[in-house]
Amino acid sequence: MTRATLDKQPHEVAAMFDDVAAKYDLTNDVLSLGQARLWRRAVAKAVDAKPGDKILDLAAGTGTSSLPFAAAGAYVVPCDFSLGMLREGKRRQPELPLTAGDATKLPFADGVFDAVTISFGLRNVQDTNAALREMLRVTRPGGRVVVCEFSHPTWAPFRTVYTEYLMRALPPVATAVSSNPDAYVYLADSIRSWPDQPALASRLQQAGWSKVAWRNLTGGIVALHRGYAPA
């Protein structure tokens, strides 16, 4: 696997997620110290799915992130480019229409979704700007986007502690609970090199999204960015 600061090769990233699919959700819960479930609930609240809504859930992995939207009565399409993740998701949630797709070339028509969301996957896409434009293309006028992604803690002392955790504590913890600990070294590096909150907001605006805003979760470890497709 190439370093996150270098160009990401889609086939390598997909293979990495294939390897960790079986234990991915469990590993995330352990590594986030239980915060991952709180972040998923925050995403569900921000998307605010209504009965009959069409929701595209990108980087959905095994489909765990899609379940709240389905429970709200929406028609949700979990989409991921890791076939290993999708196979594991189909085993767990056979009722969901899990779909293989590349975020930079989505296999959907223009303007078909009321909302598009992606959680902890945008930083693993080879071309972030192309993905944001594609998300806009498949969203109806007035529809919304919710991006949940690791970000930069806003309090400097906490940011230092967090960085130390990522680079020192995360690898041994991942070794204990993950089937591919090297994948989590890559993921830690990708978190460190990801743009901060204002920079990601700027990218959303440049891609054509309007009314872009964000709010921090867990002190800025994670940020929720929202925007709307121009009406």
User: What portion of residues is helical?
Assistant: 40-55%
Q: Which CATH top level class fits?
A: Alpha Beta
Query: In the CATH scheme, what's the topology name?
Result: Rossmann fold
Strand neighbour order, sheet with most strands? 3-2-1-4-5-7-6
Run of helices and strands: HHHEHEHEEHEHHHEE
C-alpha Rg, in Å?
A: 17 Å
Tally of alpha and pi helices:
9
Say how many strands there are.
Answer: 7
Catalogue the unreliable spans: 1-6
Q: How many domains make up the 3D coordinates?
A: 1
Strand content: 15-25%
Which secondary-structure class do the elements indicate? alpha/beta
Dominant shape: globular
Please state the average pLDDT score.
84
- Fourth-level CATH superfamily: Vaccinia Virus protein VP39
* Cα separation of the termini: 41 Å
CATH level-two architecture: 3-Layer(aba) Sandwich
Largest sheet: 7 strands, mixed
Which helices and strands occur, and which strands form pairs?
Blueprint: H1 10-20, H2 24-31, H3 35-47, E1 54-58, H4 67-71, E2 75-80, H5 83-92, E3 99-100, E4 113-119, H6 128-137, E5 139-150, H7 156-177, H8 181-192, H9 197-206, E6 210-217, E7 222-228
Parallel strand pairs: 1-2, 1-4, 2-3, 4-5
Antiparallel strand pairs: 5-7, 6-7
